[in-house]
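Purpose: get a first structural picture of the assembly so the mutagenesis plan has something to point at.
Setup: two entries, given in the order below. No constraints added.
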Amino acid sequence: MAENIIHENPIRTLLMLLGVAVVCALLVSVSAVKLRPHYVANLEAHRLAQLESILGALSGTAREVAAEDIESRVVELASGRYSDKIDAATFDARKVATDPDASVPIPSHRDIAGIKRRARHATVFLVRDANGGVDLIILPVRGSGYQSPLYGFLALAGDTSTVVALKFYEQGDTPGMGARIQDPSWEALWPGKQVYDDTGALRIGVARGKVTPGSIDADHMVDGISGATRTSQGVHGLLRFWLGDFGFGPYLERVRRGEG
Amino acid sequence: MANRYWNSLTTPLIGENPITLQILGICSALAVTTTLDTALIMSAAVTCVLALSGASVSMIRRYIPRSVRIIVQITIIASLVIIVDQVLKAFAFEMSLRLSVFVGLIVTNCIVLGRAEGFAMRHGVLTSALDGIGNGLGYSLILVLVGAIREFFGHGSLLGVQILWTTAQGGGFDPLQLMLLPPSAFFIIGGIIWLIRAKRPEQVDRSEFQVREQMQEERR
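Result (structure tokens, whole complex):
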């Protein structure tokens, strides 16, 4: 019943396509702009929930960590000192990561996390024991997975070497493959791993394939995810980067000297 | 007239169900049915896209040049899917995390393009919208059924409410691990198709090839 009233005419065809494209683009853009604040708020709530769940995983102590026990401090990464000029409450790590004034390019041979630039400052979250010593350090980490950026938190015990938990709160890798970095079973491999070996060298990471039980790596590395080598190596790279000299290395050094 | 509208809404439920008769949209039916709530949200998303894409394609059907009609349809469908995905991310964030890529993959769901090309291009706006809703509901019916069966036997719960206490929780029910794996959805959908076709033999496909003996007999 619907005979086409348009006869095949290249100009009209192109105009029609242009019209459809413009209308569709308009609808998509309007909804993206209107809904973005909700999405960002959800993402922030999700990040806080992850932060709380990482606190729930706090090993060794039976006490509950409430949100008000967490101290957030802004660290200047290069020196490892706390910066009192920046208020942790208003510091937006996501925003400054690409701000040319607030971030520095990472030399390509050192960019094992694949993030190109890093901010000069970062927020760390601390829980102190009764004597005021550092009991738990939570570091924000980010890197590149197979097809998406990875954002997570690494929680270390006060000795700066024992992993308490590693949790990713945002990633977009393949479900069932790379996305398994968020699986509880994979997250459960991390607690107890040691960041450094006896000589103080950085040994933490993700193995290619399985870790040989009993080998020296068994204390430091977890099994890679089969079928997701790029994501596994992305996690490996981001840990080595953020715990290294260009990441939180100087800060952790100060914490070990008791200047945390 | 009212009857025609009613028909385009109800025939896709069982008579021409997109999953069990046309065997379309199987991929998402396997992926999102491990629990009932994901199946429900996915059903709602697909039904929305089907209804809106049917109506919009039908609205401009007389102006769509035939040579590029599939491109126009896919553009409309993809835009609707992006909007639905953004709405889920804004108002049902946890659910959108669990559905992950499968909302985006509605674009490639053959039911949506099939209804746009096969129905909306030749029918009025209201009929096409109702046909979209009908097909969405037919899809939803199967998804909800599969989701309910898989959640009940795989977790002992429905919509997250525990009905059978599992052995891990101190009850007597041992969950069927198979139900949480994709093959179980194949078995359940297969079972549903078998039940429907046993009741309605007219849905059974004619065999594409005849057995050799019969062919020889016919030739004689």
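Chain B touches chain A at residues 60-68, 71-72, 75-76, 78-79, 82-83, 86-87, 89-91, 93, 97, 100-101, 121-122 (CB under 8 Å).
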